[in-house]
Design brief:
The complex is a heterotrimer. Chain A is mainly α. Chain A is built from 13 helices and no strands. The two termini of chain A are 18 Å apart. Classes of the chains: A mainly alpha, B alpha+beta, C mainly alpha.
Chain lengths: 282, 384, 275
Amino acid sequence: MRGAGLRQGALGLALVLPPLLVLGFLVALPAVTAVLATLTPDGGGGPTLANYARVLAARTLRADIVFTIGITLVSVAVVFALSYPLALYLRFSRGRAARILGVLFVVPLFVPVVIASFAMITFLVNHGLVSTLLYRAGVRAFPRLVYNGTGIMLTQVWVNIPFAVLILGAGLQAIDDALIDGARDVGAGPLRTFLSIILPLNAVPTMIALTLLFIGVFGSFTIPYLVGGNAPAMLGVTMTNYLTQYLRRTEAVTIAVLAFLIASVVGAVYVASVSRRERGAA
Amino acid sequence: MVVRRHSRMRGLVTGLLALLVAAVLVPASVPRGAGAAAPVTLNVYINGDTNIFDLWSKSLLPAFTKRYPQYRTNMVGLMHGNGWQGVLDKLVAAKRASRTTDVDLWETDPSIVQQGMADGLWVKLTDKLVANLGKVPADKIAATNGFGAPYRGSSVVIGYNSQFVKTPPKTFDNLVAWIKANPGKFTYCDPNTGGSGQAFVAAAIYRYATAEKYAGNAYDPKEESAWEPAWKLLRDLQPAMYNKGFHPNGNVAVLQLLGQQNIWIAPVWSDMGLDFSKRGLVPKTVKFEQISPPLFGGDSTVTLPSFSAHLEGALTLLNWLLTPEAQQLVISQVSGYPGVDWKYMPAAVRKQFADVAKPYSPLPNAKYLADLKLLWHDRVAAGQ
Amino acid sequence: MSGVLWPWAAAAFRRAAGAAALLALASFILGPLLTLLVWAFAGTWLFPNLLPEFSLRWWAFVLGNADVGKAIRMSLLSAPTATLISAVICIPAAYAFARLEFPAKRALLLSFLSANAFPKIGLYVSIATLLYRLDLMDTFTGVVLIQLVNTLLFMIWIPTGTFRGINRNLEEAARDAGAGPLRTFFQITLPIALPGIMVAGLFAFIAAFDEAQGTLIVGTPNHMTMPVLMYNLVLSYPQPVGAVFSILLSLPSLVLLLFAQRYLRAGYLAAGYSL
């Protein structure tokens, strides 16, 4: 038994090794070097958190961090609120509308992000298509929908809906129809069926979708760079500016490490909760 | 069920393979001719906006290879805004790994040349290596410490729509007063995204401090306390900007706002403004003028990595760039100022440029410019 | 009376609400793309006209650009290659994460997060130095490698979740019936996991396809991909030119959509299988 466990451990590590090597050489090693650099003071000497203290002391940067987290949470919430019903509808309806939607919702996935941002700008900008239509309908006041947080959020939603629907949908597909029919047979309404059967059974894909969405939006550069305003900016833009415009490499990497730490917390929550469920199930 | 799903999978795989095969079979769009001796291909990296890409790919490089058929060229246009950082990273990495680089010639600006100096990336240019360098005014070469050759210049000027602006402002203070009197009809690009925006910010700084102090190689962050009144001035202007304080992404975006008549006045690069005007991308009523004190201007420089694989060819190309033939192309194609002294240019050309090619204020050095952008973002955009 | 009418009214209301939601979603998704399409054929389009003066003049301008074809070809070669390699190395790893016990399993699974969550902007000097030492700069392999990094998270996390969701009893039943582990994997586990793996592959492809910053460094000057060009082409030219480029540059992935769509939709329609 002990031998079998060891063999399984060795096999597991061997299977994981190839992608781990790619990751190690192309990301982990450079990242560790970069993190060490942020801990080294300019004048030499022992490791210090001075760089982090300096970055966090800047009011604009703190504002950018808060803004980034806020935009990310709102975008993820909106994507999720739109995607879950859509995924359910596609899973359980078989009409023509469902077929049309099934084609429609994946379209943004195949539009490169730069182009999506550009398209969104031409659509939503003042004097763009939406504003022209409203103007023709007699509405003169037009809110600012691009070049600010709203624009970032709307574009993120547009880009990420297919992602969320596909992951949630792949999970829903794995749910046995018999279970749902069974729930209906004992008189459970749609809401009850959803809450007590579908949601728990689809928990792992749901958590994957939420985590990956968070990480994707949080770390984005192209969308906030093109569709966002001047300030506050999302961290992806801020750290690029620190590196390429303000010529402060150390600060840029320090911000990168902070961003990574925030994303890691979300990732760790995901891994921990999935593992807890597994132990519960076993 | 399982079997059917397999067949669907196979359909997808076949589709992907077909796509792959199609991609392989489509011939490369640049045909490879059969030259006598294998020609050397020079890789030319270009920083500028799209007008500069066109200048190189459609005018300069074809003219060069016609004159020097032993060379071929391959132009790489860098990404909007921050592609240059990738090239700098790549050069530093090649140097660390002791490899030659494929970057044979890089057209960029003095502040980037300055950044690579510490790593010893560039060839020190002299008259001996590049005969025509003698025609370039000495102070321009000094601005890059001899590591870059200015081959075209331009300055930031004011673009205004004469349909709406009958008497354009003549001085910086006039301009500020005009902006306040006409809210929403002016903006400058985010200084992180284009020189035309930096020039307006620098003009505000130069309003209260001496421009020359920030132009040389000296750098002392304490000197930046003199910039405070400028930040206040710019912050006060924010509500009068287009869209209540919006600064677009890049020089081109500002010109487009001007072209679509969303704004009536904006700082623009002289060469891009004249070029857009010539191509009909802004209305004929958009005109350009320099104000007083002038907005800043500068040269785009060509720099050669010292560990390039084709250094000799790169030197030949650089020397050719400073000939009257190439300099004429710079003027005719993108309305740039010549890199060589004006006296080497024909009188007709000098006359044509009399309006805009007035003296311009100096660019701050790389470190001050970096701080200018950072502080603008802190004090003006974020409004602290 | 109302008692009789009510279910009918409620059903009508639900239908109307459903149709409205469908319409709203459709215009949100298609609106930006339609705007782009109209812009691509616009000579001039001034506010507040609903439609522009149509013109094809920008197309001629755009089709003269030779770099585009070369970059499309490079993208269509490198992104599928990266996706396939990613699938080959990651799916076994995902299976191991889902089914086997080994040391530091959770930490290792979490570590793949860094592939997408650690901003690479400050890391390119180190990455490029490594690739120079391996003589992979300006090579197809180098470009594939840099794209591969972006695919890891999707190709590991999503299939791991999928494998975890599969009932172990099915595999055990097959093993009891005498099937070996490989045969069980290929005949039982893999087919059930296929929807999840296809989704992962799709995201991996998109992630590889969209890579720009790293490819600029590794791929220049002879292995440029589409996204590297996009920033300039789409953003630095007048709006109609940007729109024409957008359409041209979206075409390859829309072709992929045609292939993938057939599978994706079929997958949904065939959703009634039982575990």
